Amino acid sequence: MRDEQRKYMEKDSKIYVAGHRGMVGSAIVRELQRQGYNNIITRTHKELDLCRQEAVEEFFRTERPEYVFLAAAKVGGIVANQNALADFMYDNMILEMNVIHSAWKNGCKKLEFLGSSCIYPRMAPQPMPESCLLTSELEKTNEAYALAKISGLKYCEFLNRQYGTDYISVMPTNLYGPNDNYHPEHSHVLPALIRRFHEAKESNAEVVTCWGDGSPLREFLYVDDLANLCVYLMNNYSGNETVNAGTGKEITIKALSELVAKIVGYKGRIEWDSSRPNGTPRKLLDVSKAKALGWTYKTELEEGIRLAYKDFLENPMRAER
Length: 321
Ligand SMILES: NC(=O)c1ccc[n+]([C@@H]2O[C@H](COP(=O)([O-])OP(=O)(O)OC[C@H]3O[C@@H](n4cnc5c(N)ncnc54)[C@H](OP(=O)(O)O)[C@@H]3O)[C@@H](O)[C@H]2O)c1
Hints:
Blueprint: E1 15-18, H1 23-34, E2 40-41, H2 53-63, E3 67-70, H3 78-83, H4 85-105, E4 110-114, H5 143-163, E5 166-172, E6 174-176, H6 189-202, E7 207-211, E8 217-218, E9 220-222, H7 223-236, E10 243-245, E11 251-252, H8 253-264, E12 269-273, H9 288-292, H10 301-314
Parallel strand pairs: 1-2, 1-3, 3-4, 4-5, 5-10, 6-9, 7-12
Antiparallel strand pairs: 8-11
Bound molecules: NADP nicotinamide-adenine-dinucleotide phosphate.
């Protein structure tokens, strides 16, 4: 797209953030407010169930948002995904189709869809470039979620190709930060470690046992940095291919556990149960495209975990979610 055709959000543009009470959606709202955008509209899940087609159509017909950040989704860790394959596929597929289709039908100028690095192929080259999407088999444990997400991403591309829209997507690595989910079964690795070490400290536990041998390498991005990229892309990127969102840096699960234990103040031992699965040995995004577009992350992991732990302590209800 040529520069003169590009759409820039005005400070009073009507912007709908779907999923604004979630970790990503709330970070996008914070970032938009920080940058002075003053016409943000939101609906809670209770007010508007995005899986209900008629309600979604009615919402878009009435509100006609100019820009949409689609950060609502049914998300969960491996256990939740495996136990509810059908629900993960149905809810995500229908939610995405409802929102993207209604946005397009009602003249939305630009929409940004949130993908996830877990939808890249199981054996993707490392670091994973954007071009590796759909090049080989998916990871079986979250196949349902991945298929739904890929459909959303592709629907944006197909609308662009058939109707000339300007709908884009972003592909974040593992995220963490304020508003994360600390549920014992439904949470991702970093919030799960924060909770476990915090509880171990509180109960003076001598040992915390972690799964696997600690060798897998993972990448983590602080959610406020992702939100900054999402707003940046809305104003500075057009294209059918997604944009990876990460730091390009990796850490072993062992080093991560030690770092979380240090920040939380847990003084006991950490043991490794190698009879438990390790998961994929390495998962790292190739972030050269975002860099070439002029964006890079700001928050280093240690600082980010300190901020996340502070948020966890200040909002004890988080642990109950
Ligand atoms: N968290 C990560 O590490 C990560 C990594 C990569 C990509 N992402 C992507 O980022 C996006 C947001 O993830 P997140 O971590 O922010 O998840 P989250 O904290 O669970 O937030 C998701 C939000 O969507 C809302 N929602 C779900 N179903 C809905 C429905 N039918 N109608 C209306 N609202 C609904 C939820 O509301 P309720 O809670 O009220 O249901 C919640 O506010 C997802 O697309 C995810 O794939 C996340």
